[in-house]
C-alpha cells in the first residue's frame, strides 16, 4: 500500500521540496520552542512578594496568566518538534522499505531468469556430451573436448553469476528485515510516547 502511495506522481513532485520544507519547519519549531523557553524563564524569575500581591492582585494574576501561556507554548512547541522528527523518521523508513521491496522483487526475477538459463545450458551441455560420446573419431574427440571445456567454462560462469545474484538477494532480504525491525521499534517507541503524552495531558 505504501509503495503504491509513493508511486503517485504528486508525491514525487512534493519529495523534491521535502527536505527544504522539513528544515524550514524544524527551524520554525526550534525558534518557537526557544522563545517559549525564554518566556517561561522570564516570568518564572519574577517574584511578587506577599505585600505587593495583596496590594495589586491584578498584576500577580496577569503575571501568572503570562507564565501559564508561556508554559503552554513551551509544551506545544516541544511536542510538535519531537513529533515532527518522529514523522520524518517514519516517512524515511517507509520509503526505504518500499524501495527495498521493489529491489527485492527485481532481484527475485533476476535470480529466476538466471536459474532457468543455467538449467537450459546444463541440459544442452548434457545433450552435446551424449552426442559426442557416440562418435568415436579422435579428431572429433579433440573438438568435442574443446567444446566440452568451453561449455564447462560457460556453466561455471553461469554458476558464478547465479551465486552473485543469490548473494545480492540475501543482502536485500537482510536489509528489508532490518528496516522492518527498525519500523517495529519506531512504532513501539511512538506508542509509548503517545501514552506518555496522554498521561502528561
Write a structural description:
- This protein has 201 residues and is mostly helical.
- It is 93% helix and 0% strand.
- The protein is built from six helices and no strands.
- The two termini are 33 Å apart.
- The model has no long low-confidence stretch (mean pLDDT 81).
The arrangement of helices and strands along the chain is HHHHHH
Percentage of residues in DSSP E strands? under 5%
How many helices?
A: 6
The level of helicity is over 70%
Structural class: mainly alpha
Low-confidence stretches: none
Number of strands: 0
Q: Could you tell me the mean pLDDT?
A: 81
| Radius of gyration based on Cα positions | 34 Å
Distance between the termini: 33 Å
Biggest sheet descriptor: none
Tell me, briefly, the overall form.
Answer: rod-shaped
Layout of helices and strands:
Blueprint: H1 2-6, H2 9-16, H3 18-44, H4 50-55, H5 57-134, H6 138-200
Helix pairs in contact: 3-5, 5-6
What key phrases describe this protein's structure?
6 helices; mainly alpha; single chain; 201 residues; rod-shaped; 93% helix
